Amino acid sequence: MKRATFKVHYYLKSKTGTKNSPLTIYVRVTANGHRAEFSLNKQIYKKEWNKQKGCIQGYTKAAKDMNSYLEVVKSKLYMFKTQLEYENKEITGLSIKNAYLGIEENPRTVLEVFKEHNEWCKSLIGIDFAKGTWDRYEACYRHVKRLIVFKYKENDLPMRAVNPLFIQNFEHYLKTERKCAHNSTSKYLRNFKKITRIAITNGWLRDDPFINYKFHLVPVDMDFLSEEELNTLMNKNFTIDRIQQVKDIYIFCCFTGLAFIDIKNLVYEDIELKDETYWIKKKKTKDKKLVSYSNAGTCCSINEQVQKPSCLSEERNSTAGTYKSEDERIFKGDSRFLQYQ
Prior knowledge:
- The structure is a single chain.
- The protein has 3 domains: about 5-100, no CATH class; about 110-200; about 225-330, no CATH class.
- The protein has helices at about 60-85, 95-100, 110-125, 130-150, 165-175, 180-200, 225-235, 240-255, 260-265, 300-305, and strands at about 5-15, 25-30, 35-45, 50, 55, 270-275, 275-285, 290-295.
- By secondary structure, it is α+β, with helices and mostly antiparallel strands.
- The two termini are about 60 Å apart.
């Protein structure tokens, strides 16, 4: 393969045409006979410029700093040329210039990359991901989409527009506009960080916008029901079947320690009788670990009441305590009851 010819040349050019005014430094990139030029937005006087060497004359600190900057620019241009060669792309002055300036012919966008990731994640539900993980990424996608419309007045943004300021805006938006708590905000930001890592790996994003961002979760004090409160809840019968079923599922979770998603996926084959004791043996949805619970017998009567397959698949918790009359409420103002996700 023939080696690409490549040259970087600096020169001065006047933007105003006024004599004795500072001149702008331009760089000309020539590769394989094709050249492109662009401004560095740096200005100096003509008398300070060494035309033959393409640099600033003198040994002052300002001259040394400017010459160092010009060397850095040249090194980056060589780096992008090498990168284009590695990717087997066309080497021209324009392609190297665009790579340096971050200009793409068809730039990948934030929502495009995010949507592709979510579709990939969805195809692996039950294999590498739980449905709840996909749901979380979908919720994060919707938040990012709303942020772009709300803050940037656009339907989408180029992936290269994601910088530390974008992350700060996203965090602020989640906490102020979406009313997300600190821990929920951190989880959404972690979800979005995965999207930026994908973009960096594929060359769609140059710098990590999370490089100086520190994730931390605020410890949450978990509240528990007392035995008296649990008995009160168990002895309460609701007149609305839907609420009664939510209560039964909640009590079942209390006795077994199973998460709601594990209760949702529970089948009769997971319950077995051994030595006159009922056991629940099941792999947890989140980490796939096999667990055993020996107090399943306590819940068998509840389980028999919640036999219909539709019971756990319907949206029953979203309005569990919203429309209850006063006599339907057990502990007024206490959010620990029948309020789980």
